[in-house]
Amino acid sequence: MNRIKAVLADKDKTNKWLAEQLCKDPATVSKWCTNASQPTLETLLMIAKLLNVEVNAKRSAPTCKPLVRLTSWTYGFTYHNASIGRGFKGGTESSW
């Protein structure tokens, strides 16, 4: 979940303004604002910069594992699906 809609309201900005700044379809930004879909991490960081806010990730309980974990490496990301207990690096299976 994101708070894009609330932050836009706090900053007196509109979905249309954000769409124009990001060169995105206004329907896409609308989906982000209603949490029907989520922007990429790269786009989320650009939104934070445009709105002069920080990006914070919070979990409700300290013992919860994220459903998706992205770990930066030199040329990509490790995708981990905690629900099936397997991770993938560049198309090959690895352990968490």
Give an overview in words.
- It is built from four helices and four strands; from the N terminus they run ααααββββ.
- It has 96 residues and is an alpha+beta fold.
- Strands 1-2-3-4 form a four-stranded antiparallel β-sheet, with no helix packed on it.
- α2 packs across α3.
- The C terminus is likely disordered.
List keywords for this structure.
96 residues, alpha+beta, 4-stranded antiparallel sheet, disordered C terminus
| Strand-residue proportion | 15-25%
Biggest β-sheet, characterized? 4 strands, antiparallel
Order of helices and strands: HHHHEEEE
What is the average of the pLDDT values? Answer: 74
Number of helices: 4
> What is the 3D shape?
globular
Class per helix and strand makeup: alpha+beta
Rg to the nearest angstrom? 16 Å
Please list the strands of the largest sheet in the order they lie side by side: 1-2-3-4
Percent helix:
25-40%
List low-confidence stretches: 66-96
Question: Can you count the beta strands?
Answer: 4
**Separation, N- and C-terminal Cα atoms:** 24 Å
Task: Please describe the topology of this protein.
Layout (H helix, E strand, L loop, with lengths): L3 H7 L4 H8 L3 H8 L7 H11 L16 E6 L2 E6 L4 E4 L2 E3 L2
Antiparallel strand pairs: 1-2, 2-3, 3-4
